[in-house]
Structure formats: C-alpha cells, structure tokens
Amino acid sequence: VVRRNAPRTDRTNDFGRRFLLMNGSEAAAHVSVSLSTLQRFFKSEYKKTFSELRTAMKIEKSKRYLSENALSVRRVAEELGFYDQSHFCKIFKKYEGASPKEYIKRTRPV
Fold first, then answer.
1. Are 62 and 103 within 8 A, CB to CB?
2. Which residues have CB under 8 Å from 44's CB, separation 6+?
3. Using CA atoms, how far apart are residues 102 and 98, in angstroms rounded to an integer?
C-alpha cells in the first residue's frame, strides 16, 4: 500500500518495487488500460514488450544487489520475484554473458 503522505521518493521506490513483481495484466489494471494497449505502448515507446523491459530492469537491479550488497544469489532471485534461483541464473547469464557468481567475483571488493 502506497502511503499518500509519504515523501515522493518513498512512493516512487514502492511503486518501482511493485512494478518489478507485476505481470502485464496486473500492470495494465493498475493504470486502467487493456493488456493489449499496455503492450502496444511499451513496444512503441521502448521497442520492447512489457515483460522484456521488466526483465531488463530486474537484471539491472540484481547487478546492484550482487555488487553492492552481501546478498546471496538465491536471496536476490527471491527479492526480485524470479521463479527460482536456477531460472534467475539462466536469465542473468542470457543478459550479462556471465553467471551471477562470475559477476560477483568481478565486481565485489575483495
């Protein structure tokens, strides 16, 4: 639940977190449009489907979690709503060309 009197950045962060966990139908309902209208909008504005953009955003967020925090790969997968750790690792490698563990080794300070 978004607190209306919360500072804008808190409300924005809350929506951003919920957005990453929504499917296309939920996002369309949230903005009161049909799923096909939402899909056309994302394709025309971002040249990606809603799912593609949401997945890319999840991967970007996961890179921050993996490099800046001491979160486990499993915990990052859970936090971002991936089906399971294996699915997260497969998608991460597809986008980044390296597994999450390889990414951690490259980016975390020793």
1. no
2. none
3. 6
Token pair recorded at residue 45: 């504005």
The torsion of the CA quartet 11, 75, 88, 63, rounded to 10 degrees, works out to 60
Radius of gyration of the chain (CA): 16
The alpha-helical segments, DSSP class H, found in the chain are 8-21, 24-30, 35-46, 50-68, 73-79, 85-96, 100-107
Q: Give the CA angle between residues 71, 95, 75 to the nearest 5°.
A: 20
Find the length of the chain: 110
What is the C-alpha separation between 63 and 21, in angstroms, rounded? 17
User: 59 near 92, Cβ under 8 Å?
Assistant: yes
- Write out the chain's pLDDT in tens, 110 residues: 344 444 444 444 555 667 777 888 988 898 899 999 989 988 998 898 888 988 999 999 999 999 887 789 999 999 898 989 999 999 999 999 999 999 998 887 76
